[in-house]
Amino acid sequence: MNAAPTHQRSRRLHRRRANRVSPRRPPGSAFRSQRSATRSPGLKSGSACVCSAATPAASRRHRLALGCWIPPARAWTRSSALAALSEFRDRPAGTIRITAGEHAAEVVLWPALAKLLPDYPDINAEVIVDYGLTDIVAERYDAGVRLGEQVAKDMIAVRIGPDMRMAVVGSPRYFERHPKPLTPHDLTEHSCINMRLPTYGGIYVWEFEKDGHELRVRVEGQLVFNNIALRVSAALEGLGLTYLSEDVVKPYIADGRLIHVLRDWCLPFSGYHLYYPSRKQPSAAFALLVNALRYRP
User: Fold this and answer.
1) How far apart are the first and last CA of the chain?
2) What is the mean pLDDT of residues 193-201?
3) Which residues pair with 156 in a beta bridge?
4) What is the rounded CA–CA span in Å between residue 109 and residue 142?
5) Which of 95, 138, 148, 151 is the most exposed, fewest CB within 10 Å of its CB?
6) pLDDT tens digits, residue range 63-109?
């Protein structure tokens, strides 16, 4: 049999190809609606789409070209890592070591720390109660607390408390047996509750001032303590006179359990200061603490 004319074979080949090729979609809403369905808000990252179900042999590249394939989200990118690192660097953190006397720690440091620390969980504070004039550089402290007149000139000093004054007090029971002292010299005739301070090389000498005249009196008695609470308790029990910061005994004076004497010999003096080396570069955590402690009249 003779082969079919060339133009007939070409016509049959064209018909076969036409049968295999799907009809061309008009540029209408059908294709767009299918595409938008695959990109609906309910479709999660990495999920299958309508096109993948309809054309299982389609490659990921084809689906990505059609806008139907959503790659899984990256958990960590370079920009997010840098942002996290910057946040960590700027976040106040670390341990702050401070040395202070008992009174300063209770009435100044502790109230400030109680307000500051809950808002900054990465900041730790170590407060060491010490009555000695500690070398904060040698002992590796970040800062110390002293009265303003005790701060060395080469230190940065930040005022953290108001002016203070001392008070000599005794209980009504004590004064039932002893006359009230009229001058500091009269204290040598009284039983006094002493305090041992390493700063002063032993028993603390009571200090007074009036009309520009300074007076230091060494007193004696049955009791010597190195903390505040026991001196207050001993005075309340009528065991002698004690010499304390006025703010400590003010509530007991107000309710009549203690009597204030020699008031005109106890003048105000410079209060507590936070001090630290001038060459120290403050951390963010330390700067926050300094700001929280700074005295604002």
Assistant:
1) 119
2) 79
3) 276
4) 14
5) 138
6) 444 444 444 544 556 665 555 544 445 689 999 999 999 999 999 99
pLDDT confidence bin for 16, thresholds 50/70/90: low
User: Rounded distance, CA 130 to CA 214, Å?
Assistant: 27
Phi/psi zone of residue 158: left (φ > 0), alpha (ψ -120 to 50 degrees), beta?
beta
Distance of alpha carbon 204 from alpha carbon 198, whole angstroms: 9
Residue pair 168/242 in contact by the 8 Å Cβ criterion? yes
20 — pLDDT class (breaks 50, 70, 90): low
pLDDT band at residue 279 under the 50/70/90 scheme: confident
Distance CA 52, CA 61 (A): 12
Q: Is 275 exposed, middle or buried (0-12, 13-18, 19+ CB in 10 A)?
A: buried
Q: In sequence order, what DSSP letters do the residues of 68-110 get, joined into one string? A: ---PPPPS--HHHHHHHHHHHHHS--EEEEEEE-HHHIIIIIH
Contacts of 79 (CB under 8 A, 6+ apart): none
- Beta-carbon contacts of 185 under 8 Å, excluding residues fewer than 6 positions away, are 215, 217
pLDDT, tens digit (0-9, with 9 covering 90-100), for 125-165: 999 998 877 889 999 999 999 998 888 888 999 999 999 99
Q: Report the alpha-carbon distance of residue 101 to residue 89 in Å, rounded.
A: 33
Gap between the Cα atoms of 230 and 214, Å rounded: 28
Q: Please check whether residue 213 is in contact with residue 207, taking contact to mean a CB–CB distance below 8 angstroms.
A: no
Q: How many angstroms separate the CA atoms of 153 and 151, rounded?
A: 6
Measuring CA to CA, which residue among 249, 105, 86, 68 is closest to residue 170?
249
3 state DSSP class of 282: coil
